[in-house]
Amino acid sequence: MAPLEDNRIFSGVYGFFQGTLSAPEWLAYFFGGFAVIMTVVNGFLLIGTIFTWMERRVVGRFQSRLGPNRLGPFGILQAIADAIKLLFKEDIVPRRADRLLFNAAPIVMLAPSLMALAVVPFGAGSYVADLNIGVLYVVAMSGVASLAVLMAGYASNNKLALFGAMRAVAMLLSYEIPLVMTLLGITVLAGSMSLVGIVGAQGIPFLLVAPLGALIFLIAMSAELNRPPFDVTEAESELVAGYITEYSGMKFGIFYLAEFSNVVLAGALFAVLFLDGWNGYFLPSHLWFLLKVFGFLFVASWVRATLPRMRIDQILALAWKYLFPLSLVNLLLLAAETIAWPDPSTAELWLMAAINWVVALAAVPLLAMVGARTPARPRRVGFPQEVR
Amino acid sequence: MTTAVTGNELADTVQRRFPEAVEEASEGALRVAPDAIADVCRFLREDALQDFDLLSSLTAVDYVEYFEIVYHLTSIARNASVVLKARVYGREAPALPSVVGVWQGADLQEREAFDLMGVTFTGHPNLKRMLTWEGFQGYPLRRDYLEPPLPYTWPQGG
Amino acid sequence: MTTHSEPTIVNIGPHHPSTHGVFRMRLTMDGENILDVEPVIGYLHRGSEKLAEERNYTQVITLTDRMDYVASMTNNQAYVLSCEALAGVTPTERGMYLRVIGAELQRIVSHLVATGFFLQDLGAFATPLMYSMRERERILDLFEMLCGARITVSYMRIGGVFQDAPAEFWPALRRILDDFPAYIDELEGLITDNEIVTYRTKGVGAISGADAINGSLTGPVLRASGVSWDVRVAAPYDVYDRVTFDVPVGDTGDNYDRYLMRIREIRESLKIVEQCVAQIQPGPVRATNAMLFRPPPGESYVPIEAPKGELGFYLVSDGTIAPYRMHVRAPSLINLTLMKQMLVGWKLADAIVSFGSLDVNMGEVDR
User: Fold this and answer.
1) Which chain B residues are within 8 Å of C336, Cβ to Cβ?
2) In whole angstroms, what is the distance from residue A145 CA to residue A169 CA?
3) Residue B96 CA, distance from chain mean position
4) Do chains A and C touch (3 or more CB pairs under 8 A)?
């Protein structure tokens, strides 16, 4: 598997250990790999941290106020201050909480997004591993997050936390399906599940070729990330903090970081799948990648500052009644186009793009009928009796 | 301008319907017997000529020999208002019928009068203390209320 | 296999980011659906009615500020009008105009707070809230010019107001009156046609007009249910009979209508202030300056249209310098009467939003 040895960090550290220290090969390999992983993970978490700062400033500017501006120029050290504060806080575990699950939940929340990083290419030839089932791997990793939410909500011994967790699980499971369908469509279009291969197959960015897929991806991903308008799980105005109510100190910090890092991961995925990855003119590929990711993050903050929250039954109705059929339509359309033009030239790609845009513009008003379809009628609930 | 219906005007109408109800009619208010208050209120709300459909305010005043319950009624359609009163004598267990069946808006106001003055409204579905806590002794708004010594006032535990 | 289900009892509050003060709701729920609701209040009870019996009439004005602490001017106005009715005092012309200007500006402030927090409850992450607060700050600066305080103003006195508006007040007021309509348009543009807001609030928590009257609801809540009853029109006090304004009325009485009433009332309040500024004449601002106000024995109840509903002080005087009994007809408390009817059958998310749409202030509920 060529790439790892081509990786400069790996080969540098490997060479150092094997040559200078005359260490056995397995040790050199271990440290080389470790260096690569450290770079990737720390870089990712650093961007996640920068995103927490960026979101607060962007949302603040949208609300006609400054965001954090005291610590460092433009308040950029705010995230570090928050981390230090959280480290000093008392770690409270509720008396009757399920200790093992309670302590494990933050780890289960953060670990999968770090693992999903393994397949994301950050620049030309810059990735940890190029799995040829990259998309499947990423989907599998993101599914573990719902487990963490349920663990946290259940183990907190707090009814409101459990409410948040239940809502979260219902929502996360429901939105997996349109998400996966969309990714399937992209896979069909690109002819490969490997993320590197998908970037390579984008003659013109898939945002233009498959706009419906991009839209569904954005909506489904917002729901997966618990971002507004789908943030029912941590609805501050209803459930205090949902499933993370009982967490304090660094465990809360890890949840907080995991939430924002997931958004960065989603941004990276969006950039790879729809915005043509690291390609671009003049600037180095890593910089293009970062720019695209930050563009996504800005839009995410923008949406957060603007839209109110939807109700859980409306969210589920949106997933099952609208996004799921639309994602099927998207898949069908892309599959048909791939059969018609198996190896599309640029002109044929533009033709596909035109067809897909027409369909997308027809689909959006369809989505807008959601509200009219979920009747806001109270269910006259009598209490459910024993069911045999 | 809202016409303030005087007690005198209303006295005749009420007298005809409820012969022993009217105790005293004055310019400011109509005082009725406490037992008849619920019936008089129902009449005032349902009768087409009176039509007092909005209960503006319900309160109790402690005039040491008696408690006076004061009802301010408003008629939205006629733009008129009237004041009804009922006197309940005795401080141990003052009681009179509740008007929750007539206006649901009396619900919380009667609970407050019970909580702070100790007047019981018979027929009220949920006459519990509201502003003070469960287990509070005494009726704070009475003229002779003295705060009990300190260890009592704060409930034990959480 | 048998499945046994039980209702869950969830307690919202009193420590909660979204209960508009210390308020507790015990909800009996079946999953996400509400079966029963029991509001528990009294966490902010300070015994204002009892305290009023120990203070002279002018000192009680400071107590009234702190009841509905978001709208102190109208609290003052209601109390002072009741006192004047006790003794037959007529306030001065300029005093009345300044009172109405203060009350209408206060109405705008209260409705801005209500709207901002209503959107916050809906989850709009404080953006409309920040916009409302920004504009509210400008009006609070005006109050500071008038009387030195922003929130608990104690501006009104028996017979008028306590001091005249300073010279810099009028140009500042003029600037606000010029800027506000555009600002309300901006706020309304963000909210009124927003799909998510309409999906979440239309049809939710509807109360019919007949139920509303029977439940003694008043204010924007009553008008949203279709009943056109505004005390400023029905029983005008101060100079409300000399200004013209519309009374917005809704149709279904759902959360959306209640929100809409408040936005429209802000526009009407701006009209009233404009007319008062045009009509006001120089003159004394206070009729009596007696050291102690000693009304003859009697009682009075003068209701006014406060931002939250019909507010009135029932005062009983025994001829001394302090009231014998003061009872506050608190609109926020009485508007809670129909909570069960509004909430049962809906979901937990709707409970918070419906409660927010009632615009309840715990200072007034508990006094």
Assistant:
1) 108
2) 9
3) 9
4) yes
Portion 115-144 of A in contact with C at CB < 8 A: none
Instruction: Say whether C298 sits in a helix, a strand or coil.
Output: strand
**What residues in C contact A313, CB-CB < 8 Å?**
32, 347
The minimum CA-CA distance between C18 and chain B, rounded to whole Å, is 21
What 3 state SS string does A61-82 have? HHCCCCCCCCCCHHHCCHHHHH
Ranges of each domain in chain C = 1-45, 46-357
Whether chain C has a CB inside 8 Å of the CB on A69: the answer is no
Chains B and A touch (3+ CB pairs under 8 A): no
> Under a CB-based contact definition with an 8 Å cutoff, are residues C346 and C204 in contact?
yes
Q: Look at the domain C46-357 and name its fold.
A: Cytochrome-c3 Hydrogenase; chain B (1.10.645)
Q: Give residue A387's pLDDT.
A: 38
The ipTM value here is: 0.89
Q: What is the distance between the alpha carbons of residues C62 and C75, in angstroms, rounded to a whole number?
A: 10
User: How many angstroms separate the CA of residue C175 from the nearest CA in chain A?
Assistant: 20
Look up tokens 């005293």; give the residue. B24
Q: Is the peptide bond before A229 cis (omega within 30 degrees of 0)?
A: yes
Q: In this structure, are residues C41 and C24 in contact, taking their beta carbons and an 8 Å threshold?
A: yes
Residues of chain A with pLDDT under 50: 1-2, 237, 371, 383-388
Dihedrals phi, psi of C11, to nearest 5 degrees: -110, 115
Cα distance from N-terminal residue to C-terminal residue, chain B: 52
| Percent of residues, chain C, with pLDDT higher than 70 | 98
User: Quick one: closest CA in B to C23, which residue?
Assistant: B131
Cβ(A277)–Cβ(A121) below 8 Å: yes
Look-up of token digits 């505004």: C230
Residues of A in contact with C134 (CB under 8 A): 64
pTM for this predicted structure: 0.85
Domains of chain B, start order: 3-122 (3.30.460.80)
The beta-carbon contacts of B84-89 under 8 Å, at least 24 apart in sequence, are: B84/B29, B84/B30, B84/B31, B84/B32, B84/B37, B84/B40, B84/B41, B84/B44, B85/B29, B85/B30, B85/B31, B85/B32, B86/B31, B86/B32, B86/B33, B86/B34, B86/B37, B87/B23, B87/B31, B87/B34, B88/B34, B88/B119, B89/B65
Q: What are the tens digits of pLDDT across the range A78-112? A: 888 888 888 898 888 888 877 888 888 889 988 98
Q: Tell me the DSSP string of C313-351.
A: EEEEE-SSSS-SEEEEE-HHHHHTTTHHHHHTTSBHHHH
Angstrom distance (rounded) from CA A383 to CA C30: 7
* Cβ neighbours of C232 (radius 10 Å): 21
Predicted confidence (pLDDT) per residue in C124-134, tens digit: 777 888 888 88
Could you write out the three-class secondary structure of A168-196?
A: HHHHHHHHHHHHHHHHHHHHHHHCCCCHH
Burial A168-185 (b: 16+ CB within 10 A, else e): bbbbbebbbbbbbbbbbb
Continuous segment of H or E residues that includes residue A159: helix A159-190
Report chain B residues whose CB lies below 8 A from the CB of C45: 131-132
The pLDDT tens digits for A124-165 are 767 777 788 888 888 888 888 888 888 888 888 877 777 778
Residue A372, both tokens = 């009219």
Are C99 and C72 within 8 A, CB to CB? Answer: no
Tally of residues, chain B: 158
Contact indicator for B11, B67 with CB cutoff of 8 Å: no
Long-range pairs, A349-354, Cβ under 8 A, ≥24: A349/A203, A349/A204, A349/A209, A350/A204, A352/A209, A353/A204, A353/A208, A353/A209, A353/A211
Which residues sit opposite B80 in a β-bridge? B3, B75
